[in-house]
Amino acid sequence: MSRIRFENVYKSFSDVKALSDVTFEVSEGSSTGILGPNGSGKTTLMKILTGLLRPDSGRVSVNDISVLINPKEAMKHVGSLIEQPEFYTYLSGYETLEFACRIRDLGKEETKNEITRVSKLTGCFDYLQRRTGGYSRGMKQRLGLSIALAGDPEILVLDEPTFGLDPKGMKELGDLILDMRKTKTILFSTHLLNEARSLCDRIIIMENGHMKYDSKDDPSAKILRIKIFGRINNIPELSSFGSYSLTEDSILINKKEEIDNYEIIDMLVSNGIKIDMVEDFDTLSAKYLAVVEKGS
Amino acid sequence: MASGSISVVFTHYLKNYYRSKSFYLMLFLDLLILGLFTYFSFKYQNKLPAIFSALNGTGSGAIVSASLVRSGFNYIWSFVLQLLPVFAAVFFGSPALSSEIESRTAFNVFPLPVSRFVLHLGKFFAALTVTAVILGIFALGQFVNFLLVYHLFESSTFYISILLSIVLAFSILSITFLVSSIFNKNLYAYITVFLLYFLIFNAINIVFEFLYGYTPIFLLSNAASIVYRVYINFDPFSFTPGAGSISPAPVSSIILDASIMFLYALVTLALSLIIFDRREVK
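Predict the joint structure of the above. Result:
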């Protein structure tokens, strides 16, 4: 089932075409990264999906509910973090989260439990009682992510979620997103190649408002390279994950559509294989640069 | 449920309003004016008859009725009561919607599953509530001063005047929300509302009065004067010769001016709801 659907979406600001004929679907349980340089249309796409902007033409839907016709109903399924969030400065983080929970029809007791759950997940629990006016950029980002997670929506729309976080925070957030991939549909934008590569099972590259590359249509994008420590000759049977071959120090596996990287890694680790590195075999950075340079 | 959502939105914004610097600044001004009026009420209470006999054209030595003096007392206090909603509404209403864009709070509030209609109305009623609190404090001051000076409880006219000041707050807040829904910057919204109310409305008033000898009753600033004209039907800003009297404004006048204020409120509120609903956050 497609959770998110963009159909022939166009958007322009005065003379600038922000989006041109953008069409793609995000299927249930997938993690899709929108990659592109500044001004490529990533945030515009996110804003249209969350009802902050209206497209000039085209259709946008969430769980087959039109975002344009019935935004309130559509947004019940979506938690979002758009740009760098700001909050009402006289309210505490707790009150800000409480508002998001109550809007999602949670009762008082449920709200209390949900605030504790999401704030512990994102690491903002300790400063929830402070007014948001005194929050640092990283604290705001964590609170923004808590709002996105409040009420446990099945779809997450995250616009550069690691912006403003220190390396530790980036790592924690990356782990959180990896964990959420198991249960949620995630669409997130970034201009960091490594972030997209490690967190997404599908990557769309945008440039000047056009979709320039979709890893879904690129067979080479599914080849995973797993570099291991030690001898390569005691590798267990991996054909249930897809066809594979062995090199001197690595396994190259052309994994099946429904297989997630961590399933393969879990299997190898449980068989006592020590993994040095996991990466997409194709060089996404080369593709990204090719797309961007071609565009410019 | 919409009403449930409105109460959640209302409570949220009310907390933000009463903790804001704007609220405490307005409260300070409110208490300052209240203090000054209390001082002058006691200091000049014996001079009021002379002042009103002069205004009545009977000379400073003439005797005026006690009820006119009491009306005069309330007239002066209510003059401020008519200005307070304007300042409070500008403080609380002008940045209400534009700040969502300028302060970027819209990015986390608008994508929540709540309609813009509910967000707007929740915030509007929160602003109206804090405005009413400011008015209420001043009105309470007026009530207590009247009681202490004349040893009498206020008559029904006092309550009508309070009610009309709330209607005026409703009306001017609707206008400020409309202006705020158009702009991205709070400052533009503040300036526009001040210019509209104190300059443009007055300019239109002057043009009509001098050129056509007619008081444009359709202007909000003129309709607002009913807050003090319920005591003495005299508008100090009217240039029309012979206009006004020392009698209270007739019921028909009260109904007409209240209707004008309501009309401004409903039209501008509807417009701001439409604009806010279609508002893009770039």
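The CA atoms of residues 193 and 284 of chain A lie 8 Å apart.
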